[in-house]
Amino acid sequence: MDMVLFRLALEQSPLSIQIFDAAGDAVFANAAWEKMWESERKDLRGYNILRDPQIEAMGLMGMIRKAFEGEGTDIPETLYDPRKNGKEGRPRWTSGVLYPLRDEAGALAGVALVHRDITGRASAAEALRGLNTELEREVAEEERRLRETAREIEMLSRSMSQDLRAPARHIGSFLELLRAKAAPVLDAEGRRYLDIISDSVERLDGLITDLVAFSSTGQRELHKMPCNMNAVVAQCVRDQKLALSGHGRAIAWEVADLPECVADLALMREAWGHLIGNAVKFTEGTPGARIEIGAERDPAPPGAPVYFIRDNGAGFDAKYAGKLFGLFQRLHGAQEFPGSGIGLATVRRILHRHRGWVRAEGETGKGATFRFSLPA
Among residues 342, 369, 207, 215, which one has the least CA distance to residue 274? Predict the structure, then answer.
């Protein structure tokens, strides 16, 4: 009666079960085995697991023999195809366990193989490996394109620095010669034309300088280190005060204690230089000009410091805030506030290279606030 119940339990098991005698010949398979392999039990007649060439080729025969020596073992994920042995069925990915079966005297009576179908999972893993391979190929191709673009930008930068600057300086030099020779015979309108040309050449030279600097921020290798932001800002403020000396401008500076960050020191100096220079420029003509520099804590995880610079100068229309960081984007005329429209684009590039962000808030006639943060 116990044997009948045992066979019934095997038959009803949702797991595929095969039983082999001590010599390795198949003597039983349950309904789950038939369903998994889309085969019939009669196809197992004459099958001996210890003489299966496919198992031998997969390098699994050693662990199979261990089970027939009385040692249970796990079968790793394996792709098995019955058709390679001339049997009916379909190829399946399986994993399983081999259990030695013993008689009442403890002698080995056979081995049970319990295994499950993992074809869906294995297929998904294979598809994922394929996707990863394709992704790696695409990333490599993208890196190649980026290197090529970097080389093109570097060549353009050299061209701007040499091929464009030389003609601009030649124009400036000949303009001064022309001024020296023709000034005595030119009327006021003619002299005004010369001044306009001179100003334009100066602006062109400044624009080329800014473009070269903008290009270099994307090419320069990052050298991250702990940065003392207090020292960086103090130096930039000193530079601005020195540049303003003798111009009769009075600015109230409020600089709070700033937390340290990890960044490229040279690029941080450049970013702060543009931001502080902008604040100085756009407070010109503002009675009681004031510039405040400080830091807040980002409320979002991981709570990195958020640095800010706030002024009470010309400000800007808030609806154009996003436009400020575009290359050559200006919200004020060159006659009103000189500049190339490259400084804030450079700031954004520097922050993005550090995987940080920069934002602007402002109101026309009431000043502007710029905030930026770096990864904690």
Answer: 342
